[in-house]
Amino acid sequence: MISVYYFGAISLILIGLYAILVKKNLLKILIGLSIMETGVNLLLVSVGYVAGKSAPILSEGIRPSQAVDPIPQALVLTAIVIGVATTAMALSVAIILHEKYGTLNIEEIRRLRG
Amino acid sequence: MNGQYASLLIALPLISAFFVPLIKGLGKKTVKYYLVVITALQTVIAAWVFQQVYTTGQPIIVVAGGWKPPVGINLYLGHFAALFVLIVAAVSFMMAVFSVRAVEIEPIDKYAMLFLLLMLGATGMIATGDLFNLFVFMEITAISAYALTAYNKTGEAAEASMKYIVLGGIGSSFFLIGVALIYGSLGTLNMAQIAQLAGGMDATVAQVGLALIIFGLAVEAELFPLNAWAPDAYQAAPHPITAMFSAFVVKAGLYAMARLLYLMQAVESWGSVLKLLVVMATLTVIVAELAALRQKNVKRMIAYSSIGQIGLMALAFALGTQSGVDAGVFHMVNHAIVKALLFLAVGYVAITLGGTEMERFQGLGKRMPLTAFAITVGAVATVGIPLFNVFWSKLRIIIATLDVGYTWAAVLVLSASVVEAVYYFRLLHTIWFTGEGEKVSESMVIGLVMLFLAALVVVIGVYPDYAWSIAQKAGEDIFNVAQYVKNVPLMGVGA
Q1: Which of B191, B284, B338, B469 is most solvent-facing, going by the fewest CB within 10 Å?
Q2: Cβ neighbours of A111 in B, within 8 Å
Q3: CATH 1.10.287.3510 for domain A4-51+62-101
Q4: B154 CB near a chain A CB, below 8 Å?
């Protein structure tokens, strides 16, 4: 059985990829990158999802056998942090680009050629 | 000494990076010398690990926190990792020495921090034994590389960095999808256990997962459709960083690719993934070498040449035979030495004469004879003239391609060499036979580093046997997966 989460994840990835490939505005490209990362994170979480089980946190009345797979969730936490770092880095570079070129249109930002 | 001390290879650069803000209070010069000291220490530790692994013949397995793999994350310092960790540390040390002269732009403390993190990331990628840990180290490398590319704060640097970020972001997403597919079907992230279980994996899932991982790593490894960022970043980054990119950052990506590829040998659809890599590698060689021909900027030209060489290594790894892997590793070692030398020399010209355009190299033979000599050795070696080290590894690659019956690939290697000869000899002609100029005084320290690297090029070229035997052991480490699985003390959980 293929869950709805997989469809959601794949469509988020494709939407992000579309934005990266087609959009001309740098900020839209970066938003596309973030959407794509979100899609990948959703995919990872849904790999470890088991229907009807609870979050893998030790609490009263929940035994280990009743929790979903904790590893993908740990992976996603890490991936989110990395995504934030990448986005922050990208935005600060975008600020420099806007200072130097006066535009965020990627067709006008091309001094390096050949 | 206990092998667990090898974890210092990761711990030392990480903790030192966090101490940089404290050192900053002692002055700008201190930060640069601090960088030199830390990288020298790292080189000593790496040399110790290298000596341990190559005398005992046993890999060092570092088990984090005493948790046995696959529950805990392990570092695997086999023959390959020991060799390359040493190369990473030694090149970093030389570039730290070079940075004392080459990097004047503020904030120097941020530069030192990112420099150490870049070294840490590459070391980690080479040493890790866990798939997700590999991803984390890859991102550490990538994010510090993005920041270092933009370090010069010019419009060009920001532009190059932005290209790198967008492509790197796509690559890391692809890589993560591949990891999700592999984890979803095998339920493990430990590389040894993946190799153990790979035989039972669904052929289509394995094919797609592996292909996605290769695509993701192709950004770091600068393979064709995803390497548009590389020449720009090489051109715009500070000179020591360019040498580091070419000497080991790209090699770490390529190694990770080769390692994961060979770990999943048991998968049914393995051959089709190899074919994908052959196509990517061939296109990389052709596109990069032809692009190098029409460059006016020497740094950019060498960047393209570097990408072309990477294509040759990827081609050797994609052959799927022991001799191919050995040849690829040998070429990686030689290329790391040669490109460190070339980028060091060209960077030194740039900081002394003010740029890397072709015109600035006129009369270099008269103005900076030592540097011109270093560039000459590097250029002649890259082309693959006998008595220089790259000749032997190119020869090995050609033999390996003929072994599997890819005559066209041998032709490709040879014609790539011809193209290289055209543009490198053009550069040498400019250096030695055109222009006039007054002699400029050359720094002793940087001159010594260049002479050392040039001597290494010639020594390996004249006596290739020792280096080749090391490369063979390292290649064996990648190719012989059964031994790899046996070496990692897996706990008996799961399958």
Answers
A1: B469
A2: 155-156, 159
A3: yes
A4: yes
User: B318 CA to chain A: closest CA distance, Å?
Assistant: 28
Q: CA of B366: how far to CAs of A89, B376, B431, B435, in Å?
A: 44, 13, 8, 9
How far is the C-alpha of B338 from the C-alpha of B344, rounded, in Å? 10
pLDDT of residue B495: 42
B336 neighbors B248 (Cβ within 8 angstroms): yes
pLDDT digits (tens, 9 = 90+) for B231-272: 999 988 999 999 999 988 999 999 999 999 998 888 888 888
Nearest CA in chain A to B132: A75
Runs of H (alpha helix) within A1-114: 4-22, 26-47, 70-101
Measured in degrees and rounded to the nearest 5, phi and psi for residue B188 equal -145, 155
Q: Among residues of chain B, what percentage have pLDDT more than 90?
A: 36
In contact, B138 and B147? CB cutoff 8 Å: no
List CB contacts (< 8 A) between B220 and chain A.
none
End-to-end CA distance of chain B: 35
pLDDT over 60 (residue B493): no
ipTM: 0.93
Yes or no, beta carbons of B176 and A109 under 8 Å apart: no
